[in-house]
Each structure stands twice: as structure tokens, then as C-alpha cells.
Amino acid sequence: MTSSFDPEKLLNKTLVSLPPSGIRKLFDIASTMDNVISLGIGEPDFITPWHIRNAGIRSLEKGRTQYTSNSGLGELRSQTAKYLKRRFGMDYNADEILITVGGSEAIDLTMRAFISPGDEVIVPQPSFVCYGPLAELAGAVPVYLELKTENDFRLTAAQLREKITSKTKLIVLPFPNNPTGSVLEADELKEIADVIRRTDAAVLSDEIYAELTYTGKRHVSVSSLPGMRERTVVVSGFSKAFAMTGWRLGYAAAPANIIKALTKLHQYAIMCAPSASQYAAIEALSEGDGDIEEMKREYDHRRRLIVDGFNSAGLTCFEPKGAFYCFPCIKSTGLSSDEFCRRLLEEQKVALVPGNAFGSSGEGFVRASYAYSIEHIKSAIAGIIRFVGSLRK
Ligand SMILES: Cc1ncc(COP(=O)(O)O)c(C=O)c1O
Predict the structure, then answer these.
(1) How far is the C-alpha of 323 from the C-alpha of 303, rounded, in Å?
(2) Could you state, in order of their start, the residue ranges of all structural domains in the chain?
(3) pLDDT value of residue 1
(4) Whose CA is nearest to atom 13 of ligand 1?
């Protein structure tokens, strides 16, 4: 007798109904092909600077292979607080920092710490793919806010005001933005903070690209504006600024009472972030400012090259001011984002990510990462120029 027992039916219904990340779809196809030139992945092509790797190695040599305290090494937390002050003028003590497994874990913890079933979470889009799904899994209703092309995908106070209701629990501020490269200037943030201060909502400010801005001005954290610190969780990490994606290390910075709640979740779910990564991160924060500047200079060079490349292919590309992505418009080709990326991959073996993977307002755009070498970017652009040319014949 065969059993009709179907374990899949036991799975959480919200989880089952969530689509997998749209970033992956095309890369599954690309992985079956040879010699694909990809501008698809959002991670630095740099190897973690040697002195940082060496600090991780040294910690292993010394046998530091045990759990650390749940919140992370005391030295790392105080270095993080010093770093935030030195680089961005942010005021946090060591006990207001929680070391997490990537910025990703800090985002998940923040969602779960604040959300009760039925709460609303405002998620501006296009943006990184995890906010909406994690909010839903925590029982919230994600309220998507469509960032507009005419504002270069920056959030305006008026747009935010329209989405706020009595159920708004959390507002995600995803700037500098993946995938658009847009940043918020201090005066724009101030207007946004004026709106938020009139609500009972908390803020999840994802500042993982804070080091990578090309405006000539330092990144401004919403948490440093009057009345915002007490309601904001700043999420950041080591992956992007220090080329440390595989070390899986990030942090949340927030007032101690919020950090205490996040730590409770982290303690049950994770225990602590990887020890060797934490030792390496102490070195990154204390001796790594020069590495950041060097990598940033290189990204800036690549940024100019790629934007010029897209524009010369006839695909309008506004200037990305942060992170390491550009977000050119492909509407002039008459193709959808999915068709454009699929055909570009099939016909020229160049992989980009369809803009709609980051929310419906990304339709008509594609994301290209410039965390690749100049040669690599040039080859990809040549393929894109050939592809767009062939459509016009
Ligand atoms: C905007 C944004 N936030 C957070 C993350 C998560 O980074 P990690 O978990 O590697 O720190 C990413 C990674 O791509 C990202 O683009």
C-alpha cells in the first residue's frame, strides 16, 4: 500500500508560496553554458586584503576555534563602534552592536524582532531581494513603494508619507541602493526623517554600501538625524567594503534595548558569528581604511567605464552614485527585462540580471555589476553593443 503522506504539505504555506530569488533564474541557465561573461553577481572581485586574511589565519593557529560570546567579541564590537564614529560620525557604544552572520542575518533578526502578525513593512523597490520575503515570513504584510525613474530611483518624503498607515511597523531604507546605485543626500534624508518621526514605526536602514559612494561626500546615516537613533537599526557588514563575502560577517547597530532583543533571537538561532571571521574583522576595522579607499577608487573607474558603455550602446543609464551596480533602461529595445537578459545570454553569452528581479518597478531595466575587472567589463559591453545593434537591424 502506498502512503499518500506528502511532507511538502507540512511546509509553511507562506514559504511555499514565495518565489525563489529572481537573481538566480538566469544564472541557473548561465551555469550550463561555457564562456559566459557575467556582470551578474553582486560581490567584489577583489580577494580579501592579505593582512585581514592573515589575522583570520593567525586566530586559527592560536587555536581560537571556540564559540565567542553571543553578541560577538568585545574587541570587535568596540572596534565597530570606533569605526562607525571615525568613518560616518555615528554614535554607538560596544553594547549597541551585535555581530551577525552577514548583513543578511541582521536584516532577518530586525524583521523578526519587530514584526507581529498583520504589521505592515514598507519596502521601497527596486531593492535587494530579501526584505519583502523576510517580512512576510515574520508574518508582516510588505507594502511595496515604487521608486521612480524620474527621481533616479531615490525615495522622496512625499512617496513615503503616502504609504504610512496605522499598521506601519517598520520602514526599510535601502540606500546606497542595490540594484540602482542611487543614494540619498542629507537634505533628502532629513525630509524623510521628518515624516518618520511623526509615526510609531521603526527603521531598518541597510547601509552595507555606505563606504561605496562616489558623490565626493561621506554617506549620511539616517540614525544620525535628530530623533532617529532611538528607532533605527543600522544594518551593515564586511562583505562589500572589505571584500569579505565568504567570511559571512555583518552587524546591527541600534540602541541597547533593541540590540538586546535582536541578541535573544541570534542566541537561539545562531549562537555566534564564526570566530575566525571575527578576528579577521578586528584587523579589517583597525587597519583597513586604506584598502577601502583603494578598492573604491578602482570601482569608481569601472563605474565611469560601464555607464559610458551602456550609453554608447544606446541604453540610457543614469549615473549610479553608490554601491557597485548600474541600472540601465532597456525600454528602447522593445523587449521585457526577462527577454532582454535571456536573449543577451543566448546570443552574446553576456549575463545581466533582469531589473524586475528587484521588484516590479525594475521592469524595463537591467542590473549590471561593475565589481569586475576592466577587461571583463569591456568584453561584456562589446557583447551588449553587438546585441542591441542586432535588434535595430
Ligand atoms: C543591499 C544589501 N544588503 C545586504 C546584503 C547582504 O550582504 P551580506 O549578508 O553578505 O553581509 C547584500 C548582499 O548583496 C545587499 O546587496
Answers:
(1) 10
(2) 9-47+291-392, 50-287
(3) 58
(4) 42
Task: Indicate whether 27 pLDDT > 90.
Answer: no
Note the CATH number of domain 50-287: 3.40.640.10
Say what the pLDDT of residue 2 is.
64
Q: Which three cell numbers stand for residue 293?
A: 579607499
Sign of CA dihedral 368, 370, 373, 374: positive
Q: Which ligand 1 atom is at minimum distance from the Cα of 248?
A: 10
Q: From ligand 1's centre to the CA of 239, what distance in Å?
A: 7
Judge whether residue 22 has pLDDT over 90. Answer: no
Strands 97-100 and 120-125: unpaired
Superfamily holding 9-47+291-392: Aspartate Aminotransferase, domain 1 (3.90.1150.10)
**233 alpha carbon to ligand 1 midpoint, in Å?**
15
Give the rounded percent of residues in the chain with a pLDDT score beyond 90: 91
**303-331: per-residue pLDDT in tens?**
999 999 999 999 999 999 999 999 999 99
C-alpha separations of 5 from 8, 11, 14, 16, 344 in Å? 9, 13, 20, 17, 44
Give per-residue pLDDT as tens, 186-214: 999 999 999 999 999 999 999 999 999 99
CB 182 within 8 A of CB 154: yes
Measure 247 CA to ligand 1 centroid, in angstroms: 13
Which of 209, 133, 236, 144 has the alpha carbon at shortest distance from 369? 209
Centre of ligand 1 to C-alpha 267, Å, is: 21
Q: 167 pLDDT exceeds 70?
A: yes
Residue with cell 563602534: 81
The type of residue at 120 is E
Alpha-carbon distance of 353 to 277, in angstroms, equals: 30
- Cα angle: 332, vertex 336, 338; to 5 degrees: 135
Mean pLDDT of the chain: 95
Spatial separation of the C-alpha atoms in residues 325 and 92, rounded to whole Å: 29
Q: What is the mean pLDDT of residues 276-295?
A: 97
Number of CB atoms found within 10 A of residue 51's CB: 13
* Ligand 1: lining residues by beta carbon, under 6 Å: 42, 102-104, 128, 174, 178, 206, 208, 237, 239, 245, 250
Q: The dihedral of CA 117, 268, 134, 229: what is its sign?
A: positive
